[in-house]
Every structure is written in C-alpha cells, then in structure tokens.
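[step 3/7] fold_predict: job queued, chain A
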Amino acid sequence: MSGFNSSSRAPKTGKGVDKDTPQKKRFFYFFELFFRKFWKLIMLNMLYILYCVPIITIGPATVALFAVLRNFSLEKPVFLSSDFSDEFKRNFKQGFFAGLINAVVGFFIIASVYFYLQMVAVSKIFYVFLFITFALAFILITASFYLFTMISVVDQSLKQMIKNALLIAIVSVKTNILTIIALLFSTLLIVMITCAQYITAYGIMWIIAYYLMIGIALSAFVIVFNSYQYIEKYVIEPYYQKTGEKRPDEPDYSDIDEEDFVIFEDWGSKETSKKSDENDKN
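[step 4/7] structure written:
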C-alpha cells in the first residue's frame, strides 16, 4: 500500500517459524500457544510490572513486553529476563516518547468524553461530537497496538511509525474490533466470576489480582497476536520487495553444493548397479 513508509533500514526480524510450514487456524493456534506459554506469561506479567514501578518507564516496558510476546507468537526462542531487559534498553527513547504521547492522547480523550457527556443535557447535537470522539478514540487506541509492536520490529523514526500505525489501524478495522471485543470479554468474564451478583471489595481484589498475575500479559498477547500480521503485510514485506534484500528468517542455501542438497536419492538403482558389478566378477 503506497501510503505506508517502508523502513529505511532492514526490519529487525529473525528466524522463527518457517513460513512454508502448514498454518493452523489462528483461533486454535492462539490457545495452543497460550497453554504452552502459560507460566511464562505469568513471569512476564510480573517482570512488566516490576519495570513499570517508575511510572515514566511504562512506555519502554510496554515495548519490551510486546517484543517478547511477538517472539512467543512466532515461536522464537526467548530468554525471558535478558530479552526483556535488552528490548527495554534498546528501545527506551522511542518507547518513552510513545508512552508520553499515549498518555497525552488518553487524557484528551477522557476529557472530551466527559465534556460531551455533560453537554448532551444542553443540546442533543453533542451526541454527534460524542460519537466522533468515540470513533477517533477507537482509531487512536488500536493504532497504539501497532505502534508499540512496531517499535521493536522496524528501524524507522517515531513519526514514520505513528503514521504507519494510524494507517494500519484504519485498514484493519475488522480485526481491531475483534481484538477489542476479546479484551472486553476477558475482563467481563473475570468480573462475572469474581462478582457474581454485585460488585464487592472482595471481588475487586480478585480482579486486581488477576491483572497483577497474568491479565496484563494475556491482554497484550491477544493484541500482538492479532496485530503483527498487518505489520508484516504492510511494512516488513513491502520493504524486502522494494529493496530485493533477503529476509533473515528465510533459509539461505546459496553456499550449499548442489550434490549435497539431494533430499531423495535413488537407492534402488545403486543396488541394481552393485548387483551387476558382483555378477560381472563371478
């Protein structure tokens, strides 16, 4: 898509699952990954909270969280603590400013919604502005999904990545809606389980405990699992098509001799030839 900025340098990709491997249905594949990575998600959740203790580090910590979860979704080998720390330090600057922009945008969205909710009592026309605010909020929130995933993947300026994130959020509305529904459903499910009839302090404690234990990492995993495919489609793949460079996640057979690259060999003809040689000797 011409509106997207391809990376000026090679995207930061690596070897994962072979793209020629038969693909499973994404819905079932997600749950397969979830159950296999369950305990690591718990550890990752705790690691993320630890790195967020100074509030100003929430942005870089989120980038690191999304980077590790991307590797989970691609089934790459992950060294949890060291990989998280490396991504946190490597993308600190862009992650910090992305987090700051997110906070400012979030503040204005909340303020706008509050203002228009008050004004609808004065005039019904403000329902239009409220609807527009919710629509913009949806685009901006889902754009942040792609932005935090993209920071650790491509070498672009933050401005370019914000533009790409907004464009992807617009062209992938259907998937974004499903992602939001999944996030809301998981939250609603926890509320229904912990607060069966009415909200209590005990129920709120269980909800908080859920997010402190695994809820944050699980929600981010849903986001990354659904979002990365569009970054691959609209940002990474066009870069390699444009430059002609070889992807680092594709096998390189250029230095293998043709004779060494035989997969199937005609052993039957060899055996026939061997028997002929023995008959000649007799």
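[step 5/7] annotate
DSSP finds ten helices and no strands in the chain.
The mean pLDDT is 83.
exit 0
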